[in-house]
Specification:
Strand order of the largest sheet: 3-2-1-4-5-11-10
Distance between the termini: 46 Å
Helix content: 25-40%
Largest sheet: 7 strands, mixed
Number of strands: 11
Strand content: 5-15%
Radius of gyration: 20 Å
Number of helices: 8
Shape: globular
Length: 251
């Protein structure tokens, strides 16, 4: 009887372990790419990624069992735009972000973008903030990574200023955004925050010039559009909408 009981215990433990391994293998993996730039042009002010644009999609995906890896051009701790940490910008997600020691630790050790292989992930997501306008837009690793995800039929998602990183991304010799529905931080929103003359370019203008079918709603209202594998959101309030569309594509 003891031998039978032991055999049952071993078999049960093996089955649980196998099930856990199978579940782990079936888990979707999404790469988040954040800026390493903390300089707001020549203003002497600080910038970085916008915390809500990372936090809202991060928890939307995490709570659905998605495994998330974070990378940046330089690796290590990426800069957070200090304005996004202002209490007036707080949301339930940013409050959770502020108290999340595990995520804070993960951010201290973001992977270097040059070490990333799209084959290890099911999709890529870029939070915004003004930071990416000065590094990720011209980053060759980022450009190649987006092209690789897209060419391998994997979703690519961006919110707020992050669609600007598509400026130099091409597929089959054409700009990825050409003839595609797209949105992002608008000219009027940039004007409203007083940075029209500070940013290196206005993303609405550039994406339109590159052939994108740019659409928008009123300033600060949630809005996201989807065109095949390409998902974009207009502003911080659109972060969850983008994450929701990305989740649907991952199913």
């Amino acid at each position: 009887m003891k031998k039978i009981a032991l055999a049952i215990i071993i078999f049960t433990a093996f089955s649980i372990s196998a099930a856990a391994q199978k579940s782990k293998k079936g888990m979707k993996k999404v790469l988040f790419v954040v800026t390493s730039n903390d300089k707001l042009g020549n203003t002497g002010e600080k910038t970085g990624f916008w915390s809500e644009e990372l936090a809202a999609p991060y928890y939307e995906l995490l709570d659905q069992g998605v495994e998330i890896t974070i990378a940046s051009p330089l690796g290590g701790q990426p800069p957070i735009d200090p304005k996004s940490a202002d209490p007036s910008s707080a949301t339930e997600d940013t409050k959770r972000f502020d108290a999340d020691k595990a995520l804070q630790e993960k951010l201290k050790h973001t992977l270097k973008l040059s070490t990333i292989n799209q084959a290890d992930y099911d999709a890529v997501f870029y939070p915004g903030g003004h930071g990416p306008l000065w590094d990720l837009v011209e980053d060759k690793n980022s450009i190649a990574l987006i092209e690789s995800f897209y060419n391998h039929k994997k979703p690519v998602a961006f919110v707020c200023h992050a669609p600007a990183v598509l400026k130099n991304v091409k597929v089959n010799g054409e700009f990825l955004v050409k003839d595609k529905k797209i949105t992002g931080f608008t000219n009027t929103e940039e004007e409203a925050v007083g940075l029209t003359k500070v940013v290196p370019f206005l993303l609405e203008d550039v994406l339109t010039q590159n052939g994108g079918k740019f659409s928008k709603v009123e300033n600060w209202q949630p809005y996201a559009v989807e065109d095949g594998l390409l998902i974009t959101g207009q502003n911080p309030a659109s972060s969850k909408l983008v994450a929701g569309k990305l989740l649907q594509q991952l199913k």
